[in-house]
Amino acid sequence: RVGRWAGEKERAAKYKMTRKSRGRGGRGVANRKQSFHDAVENFPDAPDEKRPDAEASDEDGGSQDLGEDDENDGADVSEDAEIKLAMWDFGHCDIKKCSGRKLCRLRKISLLRTSQRFHGVVLSPLATRAISRDDAQLVGEKGLCVVDCSWNRLDEVPFRRLHNGHERLLPFLVAANPAHYGRPCELSCVEALSAALYITGHADKAMELLRVFKWGHAFVSLNQSLLDRYATEGSTSADVLRVQEDYIREAKAAAQSKRSNPTDYNDLYPPSSSEDELEGSDPGEGDSDAGEGGEG
């Protein structure tokens, strides 16, 4: 028994020395590591000039260093592509008919949880300032967010939890969505986002969102002149509200004038052939025709 234990102890010591000499992973791994180290040490230095394929990729725009302080490079990057669009959804609308949900499915905007904060402009009916060109920089840097809820259930929305100090109102606009067509201010999510983008100078992005819907062009058709006035004359919130008041005053005056001078719809129809014949015929001929008719 003593000889047996002595033999096992000797074999164990020999195995330990072999493992120590080989290192971790065995002799094969150690040899491969040494070969790789030798190859790296003997690898020639790279030339100083730029590789042709790298130059070609830079010219084609395949790889760009976004950290370069080059104004032209920054201008080439689409400003609309950098705008963050988001939405808080409170489940008041039919998912299949909700324009905001459709934009989320197409990955045009992001869906936020109620607990998530948003640091950009938030379109809220409880805001005290109207969106204007003053907000263009904030929209471009931090983004734009809309609250998707029912106009009849505003009291159920926890607007205080969504407060971030950058809430904005949309000015007077007419809805073109199928649910509220022709109603002032009752805009859908896509209409609200597009209007805010248009007013802050991101018209291309606004049209991109509206093109997703078949009726999107109708929103621009109904509000084109007013959107242009908001975008060009609305430098501040006060300017936007002034444009809104001027438009409403002009619309009321036009409606009042129309009521005081009703249109004679008979003037809109072309004259009938019988009236033309009566105006161009002699009285005798008219009596003769009437007599012949009476006989029949």
UniProtKB/TrEMBL annotation:
Compositionally biased residues, Acidic residues: 55-75, 274-296
Residue span of region Disordered: 1-75, 253-296
Keywords assigned: Cytoplasm, Ribosome biogenesis, rRNA processing, S-adenosyl-L-methionine, Transferase
Pfam family, one: Fer4_RLI
Domain annotation 16S/18S rRNA aminocarboxypropyltransferase Tsr3 C-terminal: ranges: 121-248
Biased composition (Basic residues): 14-25
Record field: compositional bias (Basic and acidic residues): 1-13
Domain RNase L inhibitor RLI-like possible metal-binding: residue ranges: 84-117
Entries under InterPro entries matching the protein: RNaseL-inhib-like_metal-bd_dom, Tsr3-like, Tsr3_C
Domain of life per record: Eukaryota
GO BP annotations listed: maturation of SSU-rRNA
UniProt GO molecular function: rRNA small subunit aminocarboxypropyltransferase activity
Protein name stated in the entry: 16S/18S rRNA aminocarboxypropyltransferase Tsr3 C-terminal domain-containing protein
Source species: Vitrella brassicaformis
